[in-house]
Write a structure and sequence with these properties.
The chain has 303 residues and is α/β, with parallel strands linked by helices. It has 14 helices and 7 strands. It has a 7-stranded mixed β-sheet, with helices on both faces. The termini are far apart.
């Protein structure tokens, strides 16, 4: 009996690597005019991008995602999605996803985290369904596009009995959630924000925030400047005002951490003296210094 059961079963495990990935199953299971049901704790725009052409041809999609306050759906992916983010297509993808959401998707929000995912692809004409369940969120690692947890358990079912059982689970989940437009409107609003135009100044401020958000404390001169170099006994250091010393300490800190720095103080605040102090500090550490300046100022810097 045991052997017969396994021969009749259409449930198999997916490694989610190589040619045995969730995305491979979806590419073969999503048909024009078909349907798709998704229950996932996360929804990545980069996962959407990989299936966008097939998703646009579907007749209908039911989507369940968590909507509790503070929930991060990982729309912009995780650390492993940096190559996708570097393609600078987030605004375009957000617009495409918002359009797909409006035309094809009925969305309901789960009030709490979903412990596992379920993806059901089918077609009304064939009556066949392909159901994928387990640790397979709608993200690049959940689809097998980027490395994920090697101990994840993901199963794929195609048999009628298994499809009926797992399909009933999704239907029960779907029917238990409120049939309102609030969750869909909130999701669409987030996508609109991602697709909105950002002026260069806002982008610049965001870059500064992400670079220095962990440096809210005041710069510690004793920690940053090596007193063993004797920099505090030099003429140029003694000529600096307090605010100029703060600029020098900040510049040295950024040079050590990021390999570069721009001193952009207003005219007359002593940027040249700050630069001279940084040069002196570098020389005292036996570091080589290259000065690039207009030709007419060459003599000033040599002196």
């Amino acid at each position: 009996m045991s052997c017969n059961f396994w021969r009749e079963s259409y449930v198999r495990l997916l490694k989610n690597s190589g040619n045995d990935r969730v995305i491979d199953e979806l590419r073969s299971g999503l048909e024009p005019g078909g349907t798709l049901d998704i229950a996932s704790p996360s929804f990545s725009l980069f996962a959407f991008a990989e299936l966008r052409t097939l998703l646009d041809k579907l007749a209908h999609c039911r989507l369940v995602v968590p909507t509790a306050v503070g929930t991060d759906l990982l729309l912009l992916g995780s650390d492993s999605d940096r190559p996708f983010r570097n393609q600078l297509q987030v605004r375009w993808l957000a617009r495409c996803c918002c359009d797909w959401l409006r035309k094809k998707v009925e969305l309901r929000g789960a009030p709490q985290f979903l412990p596992q995912s379920a993806i059901i692809a089918g077609h009304p004409d064939s009556g066949q369904q392909k159901i994928i369940t387990g640790n397979c969120p709608f993200t690049t690692d959940g689809l097998g596009l980027t490395p994920g947890n090697q101990f994840s358990l993901i199963q794929c079912a195609e048999g009628s009995d298994e499809s009926a059982m797992l399909g009933a689970w999704f239907s029960a989940l779907w029917n238990s959630l409120p049939a309102t437009q609030d969750a869909k409107q909130a999701f669409a609003g987030t996508l609109h924000d991602l697709a909105a135009h950002r002026d260069p100044y806002t982008i610049y401020i965001l870059i500064l925030h992400h670079l220095f958000q962990d440096r809210a404390d005041e710069l510690d001169e004793e920690r940053i400047v090596n007193s063993g170099t004797g920099i505090r006994n030099t003429v140029v250091w003694k000529k600096l005002y307090r605010f100029q010393r703060d600029g020098v300490v900040g510049a040295i800190d950024k040079l050590n951490r990021f390999g570069g720095c721009i001193i952009a103080d207003s005219v007359g605040l002593g940027k040249t003296f700050e630069a001279l102090a940084i040069i002196k500090y570098s020389e005292l550490r036996n570091e080589r210094v290259l000065v690039l300046c207009p030709k007419r100022l060459r003599d000033n810097w040599i002196a």
